[in-house]
Design brief:
212 residues, mainly alpha, two-stranded antiparallel ribbon, 9 helices, 75% helix, 2% strand, globular
Length: 212
């Protein structure tokens, strides 16, 4: 075999690997879409792996291969989807904003995404509470995503505390409102209103800050 034959073989193997990775990613997304569609349809309160397999048009074995942690794994990734979509919305709208309008934008984007898929959100929150027994909280990265906007706000605003502390307070208030909505103690409008105030509540709790 000459050198060119070897190079061609490598290209073929690499091409197959790339196609395999793309096919895997597409199937993975299709399974997550299937789980969310099942929940939002109102036909089920919980997701079962056989139902996901049927809806996604794949084998049950494939679902287990993609989600070794079963339903908890699906809930984790559906929660991550919310944060990813919110981050994309933030990135698209943040240019031109400054001060506390930046973290306000982020909390608003997260709230909008949660409200857009209410049954999926409640499913994710339910799984999160169950997993918290093992010190795992599905929305734990929410605070991490809010630190950056607070850090950016500090460039033009006199903040009363560190970005990390402000993010912690805002996230705690936000999550409390979210929990109340999930258990139907408050309606969607009230949750959205409380979520919109979470940044200002954090600033007020940690001291006087001036938006500049």
């Amino acid at each position: 075999m000459n050198v060119s034959d070897g190079a061609d073989s490598v290209l073929v193997v690499d091409g197959r690997a790339e196609r395999g990775a793309r096919d895997y990613a597409r199937l993975h997304d299709r399974m997550l879409d299937a789980a969310s569609e099942l929940l939002e349809s109102g036909d089920v309160d919980r997701v079962s792996l056989p139902a996901v397999a049927s809806r996604a048009g794949c084998s049950l074995t494939s679902v287990y291969n993609h989600f070794p942690r079963a339903v908890d794994g699906i809930a984790t990734e559906l929660g991550a989807r919310v944060m990813s979509r919110a981050a994309e919305r933030y990135a698209g709208s943040a240019p031109g904003l400054s001060g506390l309008d930046l973290p306000r934008l982020m909390t608003g984007a997260v709230a909008d995404e949660l409200l857009a898929h209410p049954r999926t959100t409640r499913f994710v929150m339910s799984a999160s509470i169950n997993l918290s027994v093992d010190d795992h909280w599905l929305e734990s990265d929410a605070m991490d995503q809010l630190v950056g906007p607070f850090e950016a706000a500090a460039a033009t605003a006199n903040l009363p505390a560190s970005a990390q502390d402000l993010a912690l307070y805002a996230t705690t208030f936000f999550r409390g409102a979210l929990n109340e909505w999930c258990i139907h103690s408050i309606d969607a409008h009230t949750f959205a209103s409380l979520a919109a105030r979470s940044v200002d509540v954090a600033v007020a709790a940690l001291g006087e800050g001036s938006d500049g």
